[in-house]
Amino acid sequence: MRLYTVQHRPNGDISGDPDVVLIKEGFCWPALFIPFLWLLYRVQFWGLLAYLGLTAGLSAVAYGAGLNETAVLLLSLVLSLLVAAQANDWRRWRLSAKGYELVTVVAAGSLRRAEEIFFHHQWETPNAAPAAAPVPLPASALTPFATPFDPV
To answer: Would the CA dihedral through 105, 106, 110, 116 be positive or negative?
Structure first.
């Protein structure tokens, strides 16, 4: 089972962006293999600038220190692993900056199944009392947005 966070923009403007976005928790494989293209595709310009800056700095240090190709390749791999490990969190952070709010977390085997669970779920039983207002989640120390796994 995978966990998917559901981000929703409450004041849905007509900018062409979807009002609900589901993002997988955890490692992002496309960002590992093609970080430059993933950052461009997801419109992560600050992340792209940081990635390019770190890559240039890494190349300069490797050239200045006289490292061999294997060491440079390993350092590049570590940088790609860091990008892939944080890629989905950066995407959530970007969406929260655009006005999206965390709605819930859905556990499912695939994105399609997560969408089915979220959009077809009966959130309240017909005779149940109205639910209390949701308690806002605390901000994470590791990421600039709230996650359901943070301690209260």
So the answer is: negative
pLDDT in tens, 3-46: 999 998 877 665 666 688 899 998 999 999 999 999 999 888 88
Residue bearing tokens 């490797």: 62
Q: How many CB atoms lie within 10 A of CB 16?
A: 5
Both structure tokens of 140: 């994470």
Task: Name which of 46, 138, 137, 136 is nearest 86 in CA terms.
Answer: 46
Query: Which residue carries 């779920």 as its tokens?
Result: 121
Domains of the chain: which residue ranges? 2-114
CA distance 133 to 110: 29
**Helices within the chain (DSSP H only):** 29-33, 35-41, 45-65, 69-97, 111-120
- Percentage of the chain exceeding pLDDT 90: 30
pLDDT of residue 121: 72
Non-local (6+) Cβ contacts of 82 within 8 A are: none
Which distant-in-sequence residues (6+ apart) come within 8 Å of 139 by Cβ?
A: 145, 146, 150
